[in-house]
Specification:
The complex is a heterodimer of chains A (115) and B (114). Chain A is an all-beta fold and 115 residues long. Chain A has no helices and eleven strands. In chain A, strands 2, 4, 5, 6, 9, 10 and 11 form a seven-stranded mixed beta sheet that branches. Chain A has a four-stranded antiparallel beta sheet with strand order 1-3-8-7, with no helix packed on it. Classes of the chains: A mainly beta (115), B mainly beta (114).
């Protein structure tokens, strides 16, 4: 199946700093990627839809200035958590769909800890 | 609005036995896709099985089968011959036809014991 690579897998940062998470489709082009957030023992909550060459579409309640999404190419979307706070600590995971497939492919996820 | 419901927060099953994980959904779209994913403690999302809303047959993938009852809007996952390695979180999800968004249920934690 298609491969989606997410980096880094784990990151610890200080409060007030920004963290960038990358999501790459390695063997297909993805005009659309999705970013999810998962709290411990909870479900995946869709944060935003990343659209290549245009602005991301954010779900209700997600701060677009806090979670900056850039989809500059057909194989790369980035999520930047700006001015991170401890409450931003979570598991972030991206997905992409090659199109025409029945399966959405997920990255390995990023565990963010803000101290 | 689309909605996925998993009513079993946790399930136990003995090794080699079969287990059914429940999932119901709600949508007004005639075209949709239903998915099951497995998430071990490592966090990765492992695709298990897919069912399209127009598929006539229930989907099967090895030890996984999906009991699709369209009129009841249910898409239960059946795992046959459970293995210790099946212990994980299991998520049911539905994809919207227009946006390709995946909406997830709250998950079921399956524990397989010897």
């Amino acid at each position: 199946g298609a491969v989606v690579s997410q980096h880094p897998s784990r990151v610890i940062c200080k409060s007030g700093t920004s963290v960038k998470i990358e999501c790459r489709s390695l063997d297909f082009q993805a005009t659309t990627m999705f970013w999810y957030r998962q709290f411990p023992k909870k479900s995946l909550m869709l944060m935003a839809t990343s659209n290549e060459g245009s602005k991301a579409t954010y779900e209700q309640g997600v701060e677009k200035d806090k979670f900056l999404i850039n989809h500059a190419s057909l194989t790369l979307s980035t999520l930047t958590v700006t001015s991170a706070h401890p409450e931003d600590s979570s598991f972030y995971i991206c997905s992409a769909d090659p199109g025409g497939n029945t399966e959405a492919f997920f990255g390995q996820g990023t565990r963010l800890t803000v101290v | 609005a689309q909605k996925i419901t998993q009513t079993q927060p946790g399930m136990f099953v003995q090794e080699k036995e079969a287990v059914t994980l429940d999932c119901t959904y709600d949508t007004s779209d005639p075209s949709y896709g239903l998915f099951w994913y497995k998430q071990p403690s490592s966090g990765e999302m492992i695709f298990l099985i897919y069912q399209g809303s127009y598929d006539q047959q229930n989907a099967t993938e090895g030890r996984y089968s999906l009991n699709f009852q369209k009129a009841r809007k249910s898409a239960n996952l059946v795992i046959s011959a459970s293995q210790l390695g099946d212990s994980a979180m299991y998520f049911c999800a539905m994809r919207e036809a227009l946006t390709d968004k995946l909406i997830f249920g709250t998950g079921t934690r399956l524990q397989v014991f010897p």
